[in-house]
Write a structure and sequence with these properties.
Two copies of one chain form a homodimer. Chain A has 309 residues and is an alpha/beta fold. Chain A is 41% helix and 21% strand. Chain A contains eleven helices and eleven strands. In chain A, α1 packs parallel to α3. The longest helix of chain A has 16 residues. Chains A, B: Its cofactor is Mn(2+).
Chain lengths: 309, 309
Amino acid sequence: MGKTLIFGHKSPDTDTISSALAYADLKNKRGENAEPARLGPVNKETQYALDYFNVKAPQLIEKVDADVESVILVDHNEFQQSVDNIQEVRIAEVIDHHRISNFETKEPLYFRVEPVGCTATILNKMYKENDVAVSKEVAGLLVSAIISDSLLLKSPTCTKEDVDAAYELAEIAGVDLEKYGLDMLQAGADLSDKKITELLTMDAKEFAMGGERVVIAQVNTIDINQVYHQQAQLEEEIDRSIKEKDLGLFVFVVTDILNSNSDVLALGRNKDKLEKAFDVELKENRALLEGVVSRKKQIVTTLTDAYSE
Amino acid sequence: MGKTLIFGHKSPDTDTISSALAYADLKNKRGENAEPARLGPVNKETQYALDYFNVKAPQLIEKVDADVESVILVDHNEFQQSVDNIQEVRIAEVIDHHRISNFETKEPLYFRVEPVGCTATILNKMYKENDVAVSKEVAGLLVSAIISDSLLLKSPTCTKEDVDAAYELAEIAGVDLEKYGLDMLQAGADLSDKKITELLTMDAKEFAMGGERVVIAQVNTIDINQVYHQQAQLEEEIDRSIKEKDLGLFVFVVTDILNSNSDVLALGRNKDKLEKAFDVELKENRALLEGVVSRKKQIVTTLTDAYSE
């Protein structure tokens, strides 16, 4: 049996890395030949979790090699968020919790998307379905993923299933959910040493909306002003990215994890779509979106609506 | 809680009708407000199953009305195979066993596609997952769907899961799998009273391939010559359909259920794609495809390859 590679999206976050590691672990325990991989650098938050539970990051890949028989996508399904040569490989499975878009296969596959807050929550269920016990390390990774995606269970994307899984996994992992969660989020929210380009790419996703390419990049922080200290340089770099990829819109979302708001910076010829979507007026290209913390549930959906009107 | 409508693809077959009925039954038993529906006439094979188990066909709908809160797609996911106003409705779930293509939502949903031979096999599993017993009637519908999609467990799409489910369900339904299966298939294979247009639409699906629209219509028979007796009229009607919808290719697949072969009739400007795909030469627009019985696994995949070369 050939090798199966399991990976999440580009600009990997904690759910993407943890889900790849956990699903490879589950596959291996079922006697299947699977290896986890990642499509980009490990961010600080994820590194905190990996260090805490003493787990090695998965291998970095730029493309899927010819000796790989099939791939499994976790935590994403849209091809533009996946490995560059995704169209050339056989996709055996998808395990995800995002909207479905720009995905296509020739053959039937195992495709499991559930409307929960985190891929890790689905994987926790899959361990049970397969009667495989979750180890302390894997439990630590999975609970870290839930904390990350739900901003410690506060995001509107967070469901009862996520909450239940988080408490269950925290116990197996031997951590206090609140304390560990805040420590991990703060490790990730430390942006002080980030270069401008890093801020804009560390958690950036591209979407197709109304025939336009839209990039939405997000960072979490406990100090919004510190991030916007360099607004001019951020704008310069965003403009470069817009020209290079012919984007209709670039939205940089700076989320205040303590107060659950986002201060966004938007550039591009479709700036009016963002203003229309959230009924705000951009001032110096920025607007405060009260109560908005979820890219998936609060930004992508609202913006997609504005594009399709 | 608003109403949820559950339906399968256009030109409904036994899996589409049975899955809509069964999933609505499961939802109702879980206390949810769901109604089955269908997008076209009930074919003879399905009618045989409905009559045998004394179940009423689901309601016929042409579009989803405004009072419907959400819809669930069973046995399909490609929008061109679904209800005409599918883009205007909220899709809550998809339960399917086909390739994924031309499907998109704004929001996350419950999307479950498994590489098995029949949607009914997934539904049988879902009854178990939900601890709901399958009634004799529903078992009868589900086993009929498996028999239909697998041509009595003979199609290459048929997996071990389908076989196990078929025997299990046949027992609950109180039928002999072989005997009931052959009777049902023969009821469906009786094409003697079909008009030309019916033959071409009773199980027709449209696909997007290489930027072209391709229709593949399939009928099962125990007498291929009887179907092609009227080849000239079939071609006339297919030509009309090609012009009307600007199709690149129309493939009419006549499958001999006793010998597991298909004799296909192909028209359209992309006829060469079929010849290339199966390495055959069309004679009088026809070719015998030895051992080919599955549109999904043997025709769509091979043809898609030919279009993408």
